[in-house]
Each structure stands twice: as structure tokens, then as C-alpha cells.
């Protein structure tokens, strides 16, 4: 059997064992703690070390479902996507888990369906795309399948050459909820987000979705809007996701572990530090349009996820719904793993603008914000040097930029990355010698 078949078989054994536990428990009602203990026992008994991590995540997903942190949609998606198991094949187990979930969730937060909302404010979804028509189709469908009625999708195509235009015409040309924009020349996702928002982002709430990500909780928009209505002080609300490692064909839960409300100053000053993680892209993040306008989104040089979050946190608090709502793909072609030098400089210049805005418009302390900028610049440049810098020219260029704009981190960067540069140069020499047959 190949790996996928072994994985599927291990999952069936796991689920059948749980089904027996639910249906043949000596007590009338088995508790979730008992079921999770049984999950732990099954995992410990598994002999194949390559299978164990998958069963660990399966146990986490079941626990999330039982405690109201994953919907039935999410549970079924995970079983299908990770193990190729159709829900109808394990209908008895699903029904047993649903009964357990309904009993346990009486003490958990309940997220009302859209029918319980007196009004349905419009959600504008902006999707930027370039040569990813297969991914794009799934992204659009994941929005259309949301049970929330008042939504509109704008797809802005950055001059794709892979048949994206034909895909949009064939599948969504007659769909009134989908608007298609196409650029004559390539201008990058940051510019496209701003352009599409200016043209069609007129909903009370806005979600920016990359073309390779998608939602899996069909009730998520309803939950997000309800959260906004209950907490008018927030700029945005986000949720947890699966990380999809495409090459390994593995899904893992990314749990933000945030409070339901995070104060704007705390989150802004500590953004991406321990205890204050950035949500995965913006795929689950429903922004309040009023907050986006207040933080001058139309004047932004780079409308990327970190910048949108930081500017939004100058305006309002952040909200967090503890559910698994979407899937963030990690496939090696993500822009975050292939940063160009120009993209990086734009990113750093945007952070300088945010620093100045915080001081001049929102009363933040100037010295405090200089330290904030140095920290953010160091992290941004370090990420680039670790993942995207190709040769000595890239390293020297970034050192020079740091010396001119944030000299306090210049020596730290040089000391930190000296050995990495030497290793890159040695590898290049070794490669050249092997190519020359020496």
C-alpha cells in the first residue's frame, strides 16, 4: 500500500475504535475527556511513527469539534482532505460525535446562524490572483458556499496567462455576486487590493483573500458579523486555520490562542511577538470598512497583510473567534517565501509610515515608536536574509539600508548573518567547481 492508503486505513481503525467507545460505553453518556483518553491510547498503540502525527492532529480536530471550536463542515472537510474518507462511510460515528458536541456545547459559546441576525450587513470579498486558476476556483466557491446571504466577491486578475479569464467567464460570468477585474499589465497584489477595494469594496465589512487560500466553515461569515455587532470597538475579527503543507500533503492546526478581545495598543506594540501572533494571511479576517478608511487604506503604498493589521490596530481593538475557519496553503510559491528586494523595501517604508502615523495622529511616544520600528525592521530584514537573499549583493544592500534608516540594528544584523553569507559563498564556489568538473 502507498502512504495515502496506509493513512486511510489507520484513520478507519482509529474512527472505528472511537465508534465502539461511543456506542458501547458502560455509562449512558460518555464524556469528552473519556473519548480523548481513548484517542491517546490508540495513538500510543500505533506502531508506524510516520502515521502518529496525522492521528495526533485528528484527535485535535475531534476535540475542537466537541468543544465548539470546529464546525461539522470542518470535521468532514478534514476527514475527506487528509484521509480521503467520505462522511457517509462513517455516518454512525459522525452522529455520535454530533450528539456529544450538542451536549457539551451547552456550556460553550454558541455562534448564532445568520437567521438570528436582524440585518445582514454586506461583506465585500477582495481576491487577488495571478496564474492560479485551479486554486482560484476553490477560493471563490468557498465564499459562495458561505451561508451568509449578503456577500459580493471581486476578483482582480493581475494579467494572468494561464486561462484565468476563460475560467472566470465560463464558471462565474453569469454569477451576479462575482465581479471580475483584469489588469492590462502586472502590478502586484498590494496595488491590486487597493484598486479592487476602491472600485468595489463598499460593504460594511471587508475580507482580503489570496487566491490559494479558502474557507471551510460555511457558517463563518455569520459568526464574524455577529461578533462585530456584539463588539463595535473592534477593527477586525480573525480565527484559526489549517496549515496545508502541499508537498507533504499534510494539514496541521494553526491555533492563535488569543483572547476574544485584544486591546489595540497591546496588540500593536507587540505584534508578532510571543503571545501576539499574526493571523495566517487575512483569509479569516473580516475588517470593518469604517476602520480601513480611518487608517487611510486608499493612501497605502503597500496593502499587504501585516500593514493592514498594524494600521487597523491604530484605530480599534482586535477580535478573535476560537474556531478553525479556513485553510492556508504552504506550497513554496507563496509570496512570503519569495520576497523580492523591491517588495521588502516597500514593506519597510510602509512600516516607517505607520510609525510616523502612530506618533503624529494617535499620540504614541516618539522614542517608543523608534524602538518599535527598529524591532520590526530587524525582524523583516532578518526574514529576507534567511529566506530570500541570494548573494553578497543582497546582503550588502540590506546592510546599507539599515545603516541609513535604523543604524542601531546595523551591527546586530552584520554579526548575526556574517556566517550565513560565508556559507552561501562557499556553496556557490562548490557548485561552480562541480559544474566545471574540478
From TrEMBL:
Matches recorded under CDD domains: Glyco_tranf_GTA_type (cd00761)
Ranges where the Glycosyltransferase 2-like domain occurs: 124-237
SUPFAM superfamilies: Nucleotide-diphospho-sugar transferases
One Pfam match: Glycos_transf_2
InterPro entries for the chain: Glyco_trans_2-like, Glycosyltransf_2, Nucleotide-diphossugar_trans
Family assignment from sequence similarity: Belongs to the glycosyltransferase 2 family.
Protein name: Glycosyltransferase 2-like domain-containing protein
Species per Swiss-Prot/TrEMBL record: Paenibacillus odorifer
